[in-house]
């Protein structure tokens, strides 16, 4: 599983997790751990390099 797919999966997890109705303490712990995992995964993604192409400026 790629890092981008894992990041999307964690995004879905966070969205669904909001509606599960877990106790407040567990909610804070799980939300914090999920947020940290999302940060770690996104930090380790390779940076995309942008190339400046002037093709769109040609008429």
Written description of the protein model:
The protein is mainly α and 59 residues long. Helices cover 59% and strands 0% of the residues. It contains two helices and no strands. It has helices spanning 3-17, 24-43. It is elongated, with a radius of gyration of 18 Å. The N and C termini lie far apart (42 Å).
Count of helices? 2
**Range of strand content:** under 5%
- Considering DSSP H and I runs of 4 or more, what fraction of the residues is helical? 55-70%
Low-confidence stretches: none
Features of the shown structure:
59 residues; 0% strand; mainly alpha
Would you kindly provide a brief summary of this structure?
This protein has 59 residues and is an all-alpha fold. Helices cover 59% and strands 0% of the residues.
